[in-house]
From TrEMBL:
The chain crosses the membrane at residues 6-27, 39-55, 67-87, 94-113, 133-153, 173-193, 205-226, 238-262, 268-286, 298-322. Keywords: Membrane, Transmembrane, Transmembrane helix. This is Putative sodium-dependent bicarbonate transporter. The keyword RNA-binding does not apply. It comes from the Bacteria.
Length: 332
């Protein structure tokens, strides 16, 4: 693997701001970002990538490559939690295993955005329809996680904690981030179809401001990730190893699926990153509400304190190296 892409990734402004945020915690700086701002920037990033993704899907259309790719994305978000659950059951009970597995079956939009920035810095083309895969991969893992609890949990679970299918679907499909991402995708698609001038009017908001907003959001993420690091001690070595092994394992599966789908290097990296990332927002919110038996320190500390920074700093260039190694060899 070439060292240059890793250095270029580490020295990119979003990653540097992430590291600056983490260092501020380690050195006990009084740097603090008011609570509403990270939420605002998170919503902005989801709106912008959804809007731009809808435009690109309208431009590319539902081609022979788009539909299989979106189907494969959904399939991976269903399979990954099942694999993770089987591994985690060696060490944890049903509740913690299902919650952690669901987090690793879902995705991280910020990791996806960082991968897009990496591709742009490497001048590698990718298609906007991959945002559709991002939007579709967040909910299925939540559904699988909750169904695992429903069918594998001890029979004597209190009735007050029994889950109904309608509640599972509502939480999975209408949580804030999924709703905003899908809605923005539709708005972008409709704007590109019927009102192209709207794209120009939105460009300063969804285009020129995007990179700066990403840097600011990652600054806050660095702070939060570093604050989570001490809680990793309670997770134990098994879960810490899982937090690094699972992304690499999922990336390995993802790159062969990308090869089977004949995706180009840019789209392949985005698909692999979606498979390798883990949710630290939507899934924890759903699990905290519906599976209170699971320890949030497990699934939040590992995804946010370990897997997320690993993917942002080292994972993306490692996955790109994997893509570059395997996909050119494909005779398909």
């Amino acid at each position: 693997m070439e060292i240059n892409p890793i250095l270029q990734n580490v020295l990119a402004p979003p990653v540097l701001f992430f590291l600056i945020g983490a260092i501020s915690v380690l050195f006990k700086s009084d740097l603090e970002i008011p609570a509403p701002l990270p939420k605002l920037f998170s919503l902005y990033l989801l709106l912008a990538i959804g809007f731009k993704g809808g435009i690109e899907i309208q431009k590319s259309g539902f081609t022979d490559q788009v539909l299989p790719t979106l189907s494969a994305a959904i399939l991976m978000s269903l399979v990954i939690p099942l694999i993770g659950f089987l591994i985690l059951r060696f060490k944890f009970d049903v509740f913690n295993s299902a919650a952690i597995a669901a987090a690793y079956g879902s995705i991280s939009a910020v990791t996806f955005i960082s991968a897009e920035s990496f591709l742009e810095s490497q001048k590698i083309a990718f298609d906007g329809f991959m945002v559709g895969a991002l939007a579709l991969m967040e909910s299925p893992a939540i559904i699988v996680g909750l169904l695992l609890v429903k069918f594998a949990a001890p029979k004597n679970r209190p009735k007050s904690r029994k889950m109904h299918l309608s509640a599972i679907l509502h939480e999975s499909l209408l949580n804030g981030s999924v709703y905003l991402l899908l809605s923005s995708l539709i708005v972008g698609f409709l704007t590109a179809s019927s009102n192209p001038s709207g794209i120009t009017k939105m460009e300063p908001f969804t285009g020129q401001l995007f990179y700066g907003a990403e840097c600011f959001f990652l600054l806050d993420m660095g702070i939060v990730a570093a604050q989570r690091l001490p809680r990793l001690k309670s997770a134990g070595s098994f879960l810490i190893g899982f937090a690094i092994f699972m992304p690499l394992f999922n990336a390995f599966i993802g790159v062969f699926i990308a090869r089977f789908l004949s995706l180009g290097p840019g789209n392949a990296l985005l698909f692999v990153v979606l498979c390798a990332s883990a949710s630290y927002l939507a899934v924890p919110a759903a699990m905290r509400m519906t599976v209170p038996e699971a320890k949030s320190s497990y699934y939040i500390s590992t995804t946010l304190g370990l897997t997320f920074p690993f993917n942002i700093v080292l994972g993306i260039p490692i996955y790109m190296s994997l893509v570059s190694t395997i996909i050119p060899l494909s005779p398909l």
